[in-house]
Amino acid sequence: QVTLVENGGGLVQAGGSLRLTCTASKETFSMAWFRQSPGNVREFIAAINGRGGSFYHDPMKDRFTISRDNGQRFVYLQMNSLEPEDTATYYCAADRYYIGRDSNLYEYWGPGTHVTVSS
For a disulfide at 47, which of 31, 32, 53, 97, Cβ 3.0-4.6 Å? Predict the structure, then answer.
């Protein structure tokens, strides 16, 4: 069993930046970030494997950066030039085998951290 905890969310003005952190209780093959706003499906942002290989949902890759520490238990999401449309709950996910865009295939999830971007 792997426990994930996100932090770093909060209120920020449009154009600002936030850095989210996810802490895992154990190393996993992959870690990823998703987000969900009310009435919408959970949306893939980015994923990273244990060797630092990463990929993104294309519309976000210019403003969001995923990274992972050498110890493999922390993953970060640097978010720049935030827009009101980025307001959502941001979730960290991890899996022992899978890396990809499908939220249904990640085994472990954090409770989420909320980000509000004011205009």
Answer: 32
